[in-house]
């Protein structure tokens, strides 16, 4: 377990290298995002994803979301990007909107009991984007034990996750401190599964009619 202060340029470079190496070897990393801190693993390493779920104390019934480092990465992860999803990506990525889409059946990953879907987001945080562009798509969930508040700092993440994580990237306090808004675009009418960082009226401005679940 090691923490890198990403406010220092030299330590940030070392931390990103260490985090990329840890992910490549199947270990877990904590990274800052614009919403809350995340615990991440290589999305295509099933053992690492299982370790992530175990670190959180979370079951396979709550599959792990995926973070990407560019707009076009999603094209390689899904059968087809619905037009409404493309409009939402252009409006809100990078940023605090997660999209639930149908993933390509050919993908060799196991994110939990996802039933053919995956939740994808591109975060608006330079450290997260640098890591994602180095590693590729990462399975990332909020950096907390299941049932506990999401961590908004590296210190809070370490208090909850401890030695289960190899590398902690400290990017300072999370700018937003609220989890992303989650929008399911797999059906005819987009469904808001969780209200969060992107306000509902802004989602409606781009998506038009939406259904709010719960």
Automatic annotation (TrEMBL):
<keyword id="KW-0547">Nucleotide-binding</keyword>
<keyword id="KW-0963">Cytoplasm</keyword>
<dbReference type="InterPro" id="IPR006070">
    <property type="entry name" value="Sua5-like_dom"/>
</dbReference>
<dbReference type="GO" id="GO:0006450">
    <property type="term" value="P:regulation of translational fidelity"/>
</dbReference>
<feature type="domain" description="YrdC-like">
    <location>
        <begin position="13"/>
        <end position="198"/>
    </location>
</feature>
<dbReference type="GO" id="GO:0003725">
    <property type="term" value="F:double-stranded RNA binding"/>
</dbReference>
<keyword id="KW-0808">Transferase</keyword>
<dbReference type="InterPro" id="IPR050156">
    <property type="entry name" value="TC-AMP_synthase_SUA5"/>
</dbReference>
<dbReference type="GO" id="GO:0005737">
    <property type="term" value="C:cytoplasm"/>
</dbReference>
<keyword id="KW-0067">ATP-binding</keyword>
<dbReference type="GO" id="GO:0005524">
    <property type="term" value="F:ATP binding"/>
</dbReference>
<dbReference type="Pfam" id="PF01300">
    <property type="entry name" value="Sua5_yciO_yrdC"/>
</dbReference>
<dbReference type="GO" id="GO:0008033">
    <property type="term" value="P:tRNA processing"/>
</dbReference>
<dbReference type="GO" id="GO:0061710">
    <property type="term" value="F:L-threonylcarbamoyladenylate synthase"/>
</dbReference>
<keyword id="KW-0548">Nucleotidyltransferase</keyword>
<dbReference type="GO" id="GO:0000049">
    <property type="term" value="F:tRNA binding"/>
</dbReference>
<comment type="similarity">
    <text>Belongs to the SUA5 family.</text>
</comment>
<keyword id="KW-0819">tRNA processing</keyword>
<dbReference type="InterPro" id="IPR017945">
    <property type="entry name" value="DHBP_synth_RibB-like_a/b_dom"/>
</dbReference>
<protein>
    <recommendedName>
        <fullName>L-threonylcarbamoyladenylate synthase</fullName>
        <ecNumber>2.7.7.87</ecNumber>
    </recommendedName>
</protein>
């Amino acid at each position: 377990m090691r923490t890198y202060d990403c406010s220092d340029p030299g330590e940030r470079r070392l931390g990103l290298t260490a985090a990329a190496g840890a992910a490549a070897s199947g270990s877990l990393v904590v990274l800052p995002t614009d919403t809350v801190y995340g615990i991440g693993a290589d999305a295509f390493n099933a053992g690492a994803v299982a370790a992530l779920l175990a670190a959180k104390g979370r079951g396979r019934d709550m599959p792990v979301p995926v973070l990407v480092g560019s707009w076009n990465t999603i094209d390689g992860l899904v059968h087809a990007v619905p037009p409404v999803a493309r409009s939402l990506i252009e409006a809100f990525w990078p940023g605090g909107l997660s999209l639930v889409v149908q993933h390509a059946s050919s993908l060799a990953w196991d994110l939990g009991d996802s039933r053919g879907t995956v939740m994808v987001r591109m975060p608006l945080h330079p450290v997260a984007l640098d890591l994602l562009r180095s590693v590729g798509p990462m399975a990332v969930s909020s950096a907390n034990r299941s049932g506990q508040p999401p961590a908004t700092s590296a210190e809070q993440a370490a208090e909850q996750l401890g030695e289960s994580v190899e590398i902690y990237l400290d990017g300072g306090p999370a700018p937003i401190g609220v989890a992303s808004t989650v929008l399911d675009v797999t059906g005819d009418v987009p469904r808001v599964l969780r209200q969060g960082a992107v306000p509902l009226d802004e989602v409606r401005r781009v998506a038009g009619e939406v259904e709010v679940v719960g």
